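Q: Can I see a sequence and its folded structure?
A: Here is a first one.
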Amino acid sequence: MNTSNTQLSAFPDSKNHYKILDGLRGVAAIIVVAFHVFETHSTSHQDQIINHGYLAVDFFYVLSGFVIGYAYDDRWGKMTLAGFFKRRLIRLHPMVIMGMIVGAIGFYFQACNYWPTISQTPAWKMLFVMLIGFTLICGPLSMDIRGWHEMHPLNGPGWSLFFEYIANILYAVFVRKFSNTALSILVILSGIALIHLAVTSTNGDIIGGWSVEPEQLRIGISRLMYPFFAGLLLSRINRLSPIKYSFLLSSMLVIIFLSIPRIGGTTHLWMNGLYDSLCVILIFPLIVFIGANGEIKGKYTSKLCKFLGDISYPIYITHYPIIYIYTAWVSDNKVPLQQAWPMGILVLFSSILLAYVCLKFYDMPLRKWLGNRFIYKTPN
């Protein structure tokens, strides 16, 4: 592996990429964009198209836990806590900042009937919220300049990165030292908490986590703990078992399980909660196992997985400001899906293009410079 690829990789030094997992991350990120486009036209959770797209966040957490375990579990004799946190910040934070900047630009030019508070928000307050967003620190409700009670009102998906950082801190400070038995106990207890959340939810799902309100913080922690540490446990116990057509199989499973219509209707909400639990606890680790044990032989499949993996995080962290604009347009003009679908497709491709531009001209060069400056020329 050459130096430049190493510096931009999630895996340090001699570690090889799980290329299929990269591809799966991109597939899930594109589904998230489509989910949010369709969400604009839904009247409730019941008629949402790509109904379970919100579970992509939980799938990302399984992937993250697996990657962290594979990349760092055997490095702690040569790496300090500071070295680990530097690597994670360099990997994640440049795009956090870019996502907030894109969100601020969209907010400034977004006066509309759907969000009347936008035109009443002074520029200084918006810039202050953007600066808070740069840190991923939860702002108080007084800084909720959009009115959706979002933790990061300029770029809603920042909430999941907030919890991702919590998982990284827990792993580095405590959980990396756990034996597999202790880690298994943590995973089991977290799974029980997740099932309880899902089946007792007033909406019959595990949607939530994006607000500083106590119940939302509970949802966020519950959604984080099982998938992330189940992914970590899977990375420790995984034994290579070659699986044919792994990328095709695992991609189809991601698409199918995120697109399943609502289960149980309004009279049996617990059934959909049980489905959410089944996906997070059993299906997503299985998909990651399939992806981790596959092999890519075709040149074009390899390029596709690399492209999807490269743009996956930039798509996720920059697409929602475009969704805000689309949502306001649909709401203000009462545009039904039958008429809005060309704009919806434009939103999808615009999100991919924006992600690619941010990746090539900002994220990759900046991470390379930061890696050379703070990691590869200094002790870990």
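Q: Show me another, different protein.
A: A second, unrelated one:
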Amino acid sequence: MLVVGWYVGSNGVASISNVTSLWWLVGAIGTGFSSAAAILISQYEGLKDKEKQFETINALGFIIFVSSVIISVITALFYRNILLFLNVPPEAIEYAKDYLRILSFGWIFNFSFISISYVIRGFGNSVYPFILMGVCAGLNLVFDLIFVGICDMGPAGAAISTVVVNFLSFSLSFFVLKKFYLRSFKFNIFKIKISSIKPFFKLAVPLMAQLIVVDFSYVLITKMANSYGIIIASTLGIGMQVHNLIALPSRALSRALTVGAGQNFGANKIENAKKVLHIGLYLSIIVTTFLAIVFNIFSRAIISLFDTNPDVILQSQLYMLYCCSLDCVLYAIRNVYNHFASGLGDTKFSCINSLVGPVFLRVFLCYILSRNFNLGFLGVCIGITASSILPVITGFVHFKFSNWWEKKQYN
């Protein structure tokens, strides 16, 4: 989005923004399956059951292959209809079509890269995924500058860059997985055990459902923002990226927490699992609060990196003030409780807790405040933040008063 903003402007940023909300929505499918695999692998790691780990990895490979092919076909055939549903502003529609059409050919590489990263995390190693993601990000920036800047291909160039880099990242991550973890394991994704599917789907379906519905709520909010024109569409895109940047450390901590909780729970070390939760909460709150303050202090300079339009800067500062402050901290707390429950295998709770507040309440509040109370885009900002309060409360109550330590969800 940065590079497209430099060379194309607000129209390019708005096109990337609209497709990004779809990217998160579709990517939730791969992330849901991969998260379920990581939970099982971490629990089997605690039990020292290598055979079950291999069965889980094979099942994941089959599911990722089938789902990515289906999604690629759907997005390639219906990308025009999808963007029309979103009410993409006319100034950005052609850019968005080019961007989404090209991205549709790279889902299998994206899903595969995500799944391998989660598998490695499931083994308890978060360093390799970090290095792989760093390489991926660096390559993506280089190719963006080449295709968008030097070759003047606009958002289409950014899409080509993404597909190429996802292919390279998948290839590199597969090499790492095979060399360091699965030397004796032979992949055959079309020969899977039915017994490995049941626990997999028991965890994956609630996780995937919550991610899809949560991300679909952002699609609906994007649709609302598009009705206010190109300035607000660009603003929401920048705001969501900044929001994502502030939330990234807490999200990473939560993923590590899932593995730590899963391994301790699998080994029946309940007190250690509780310590993992408390450390995750403290670190997430401290880091997120610090980043939110820094980003708000330097909001104008940060937003100007994406778009120098004065109207976009003004509206983006409004978004950062109301959404990138308290909401990011609330999100961090909610995320810790949800990922802790997921690490224990209780994906049903994390699913429900992610749907009631962050989805149904969010969409309702954003619509009511922006339309019925005539607050416009400010109503959307307030609605996003207000909807994050409820899941924090329910997360605390669930940890404090439910007998979660007595349940073995993966059996």
